[in-house]
Amino acid sequence: MAVNLKKETIYKQKLFPKSSLSSRREERYFWLFISPWVIGFTLFIGGPMLASLYFSFTDYSILGAINFIGIQNFINLFQDPIFFRSLFVTFGYAALAVPFTMILGLSLALLLNAKIKGQAFFRTFFYAPSIISGVSVAFLWMWLLNPQFGIVNSFLYNAFGITGPGWFTDPLTVIPSFALMQLTAVGGTMIIFLASLQQLPSELYESAAIDGASIWARFRKITVPLISPVILFNGIIALISSFQIFTQAYVITDGGPDWMSYFYVYYLFETAFFQNRIGYASAQAWVLFIIIFLLTFLSLYVSRKSVHYEYDKK
User: Fold this and answer.
1) What pLDDT, in 10s, does the model give residues 21-73?
2) Spatial separation of the C-alpha atoms in residues 240 and 289, rounded to whole Å
3) Contact yes or no for 177/249 (Cβ under 8 A)
4) Does residue 292 fall inside a structural domain?
5) Is residue 14 scored above 60 in pLDDT?
6) What is the pLDDT of residues 164-186, one digit of tens each?
7) Is pLDDT above 60 for 288?
8) pLDDT at position 106, please?
9) Does 59 map to a domain?
10) Are 245 and 175 in contact (CB under 8 A)?
11) Could you read off the pLDDT of 216-244 as tens digits, one per residue?
């Protein structure tokens, strides 16, 4: 019996060795260096999220007292026609912006993956606009797409004799105009695609070319399956970003014309900071969180058979 206990003690010591002085020092350094992130997350993300969850069940309005009202904010929200209007506009924008961003980002990555002269310059040129302030980009597109003196309409008229559309002033073109603005925001998507393309084995393409496969066949049968996890990742990120659009509408259209750019986050912003209805705005924020979570889960579920991951068959 004593022998068995001794063996068990030795076994546990092998599995769970006592921390040495150096390992404990490393652990302290770990918590020391990660503490700024932990503090920042607690103060600016985790704490505010928990606070907004509490406020979503109250009628808090900054100036008044906080009264707990249960799920009344959520009931009122789903009876609010502006809520459904803003959701409709946001879904419409996402339906245009997400495919446009994905196709444009992948196309640019394929072009910039080719060995051409000035490759580094072109990569920087296409990526740089994505790190510029959103307000600056909004003012740039206001100038480019101005119906009276914008460069785009001037080019259309001088080159083809076509009178350009109103872009941001026409209810029919305002959402496509916002989607077009992704031309200057696609850099991040492009870089991720480019990094994934550079990891693909050239032997597969050489073998396919020897077998007579066309460029399109190589792209469809080799490139797309191998980068399918990256396609899924970029698609989810683009989807989340499209549901968080706000700056462009706030700077350019102020929700117009005819409510056609009254996005969900714009409505949330007005509710919180113009109407001072913090409780109601918190409920809106959590509904948005649930919508994005469900769409992300749906994307992962639908793509589970078409996304191919590398794994170890041991």
Assistant:
1) 788 888 899 999 999 999 999 999 999 999 999 999 999 988 888 999 999 99
2) 10
3) no
4) yes
5) no
6) 999 999 999 999 999 999 999 99
7) yes
8) 96
9) no
10) no
11) 999 999 999 999 999 999 999 999 999 99
pLDDT value at position 19?
52
Residue type at 91? F
252 contacts 142 by C-beta, under 8 angstroms: yes
Query: For residues 132 and 184, is the Cβ–Cβ distance under 8 A?
Result: yes
Distance CA 236, CA 302 (A): 12
35 belongs to a structural domain: no
The residue with tokens 């496509």 is: 176
Structural domain total, the chain: 1
* Whole-number Å distance between alpha carbons of 112 and 312: 31
* CB contact set of 228 (below 8 Å; sequence gap of 6+): 303, 306, 307, 308
Residue 78: φ, ψ to 5°: -80, 0
Mean pLDDT, rounded, for 305-311: 79
- Spatial neighbors of 107 by CB under 8 A, at least 6 apart, are none
Closest CA relative to residue 282, chosen from 62, 15, 30, 21:
62
Could you tell me the two tokens for 111?
């072009």
* CATH number of residue 138's parent domain: 1.10.3720.10
Q: Read off the tokens for 302.
A: 């639908």
Would you call 265 helix, strand, or coil by DSSP? helix
| 36 is a domain residue | no
State the helix-helix crossing angle for 119-127 and 187-197, rounded to 10 degrees.
140
**Cα gap 203→208, rounded to integer Å:** 9
Instruction: Give the structural domain span for 107.
Output: 73-302
pTM of the model: 0.88
- Report the sign of the C-alpha dihedral through residues 292, 295, 299, 300, in that order: positive
